[in-house]
Amino acid sequence: MILQNAKIYGQAGKWDIAINGEEIKSITPAANNSGDGDDNAVDLNGKIVLPPFVEPHIHLDYALTAGTPRWNKSGSVFEGIEIWSERKQIVKETKEDIKQRALKAIKMQIKHGIQHVRTHVDVSDPTLKGLEALLEVKEEVKPWMDVQLVALPQEGLYTHPKGEELLEKALKMGADVVGGIPHYELTREDGVRSVIKALELAEKYEKLVDIHCDEIDDEQSRYLEVLAAEALKLGIGDRVTASHTTAMASYNDAYTYKLFQTLKKANIHFVALPKANLHLQGRFDNYPKRRGLTRVKELLEAGVNVSFGLDSIMDPWYPLGDGNLIHVVEIGLHACHMTDYDNIVTALELITTNGAKTLGIKEGYGVKEGNKANLIVIDTDSEYEAIRTQAPVIYSIRNGEIIVETKPAETTMNVPF
Ligand code: 17E
Ligand code: FE2
Asked: Which residue in 65, 319, 325, 359 has the most C-beta neighbors within 10 A?
């Protein structure tokens, strides 16, 4: 197959991308007749090619459960946790039921050009059937999606009586990443212990770490400093992610200045979830209401890696969501005051290269000769318009095969101008 007249995201000019089997064979300046005689030549007419989107933070075991057994009335993180806990008692799902929901959600993500996903999985359920389901899903979807599993002690590592035992079991079963939720533990001390424990387990089992960290509008919630400092001391920052960190939006600037000195040295990754946290945070504020998003712009300016994720597809925390990450980027740029030209034209890095770094995808990611032919095409020839129009993914190519093709909507207008 040859993709003719492609624009490569962030690069000038037009290119012909020749794909041989599963590999990108060559990328050469566009020539008018390069595809002659090749039935598999696709003229992209300057449309943008990128590496596949990376979803660095979703909860696939929760997907498509919103409203059962009840809707989240307060819209808060904490009511979400309560509802999920109730649901586990009331709705007796089998492993197969969980798999079916996760597969439906993954299909939505594939449709939107995602080929790499990190999903958190609740390991507070003593049967660990959610993890069993997702371990099977991970294998089954391999031809279309790379899946990383985070063992998340959703009901607390020390708050849940069996939290620690279940987390360790989940890691032995094959979870790739150690999770945590320190702001949900009963005391600050338990929260600190849970972060330290997560890092210890990551070292012991050679796993990555991704903590739900400070997902609360409490300016006193300071587990991020513990996570960053411990990762720095252990020298494993590149394997550690702080997710949500919404409390950072409420920290005072003097403290934040000091915190940033640690973050710059620690080299940990951040995931912000703009749609989910705009919805979940500020729920206990009267006016003025906080946005509840971490300091994305400032982190990026400090050279810290940040990616964007969706968090939820219709679950007790968030009632909407369909897997579309360009939409997350568009909203996130607004929410983080990043709607300046430079941030708009580089914004898709938030859901491509930055996410890939977070997941630890070291090799073979990117539109480059010799890499796997895993790439997507979006329906625009401009980085700026990609955001403004939220350009749809028109092709997703995996191992040299087109796995998604979308025909853009066609509109006829009967107006005189
Ligand atoms: N669990 C949690 O603690 N926070 C969230 N935002 C979601 C699940 C979706
Ligand atoms: Fe989350």
From this structure: 325
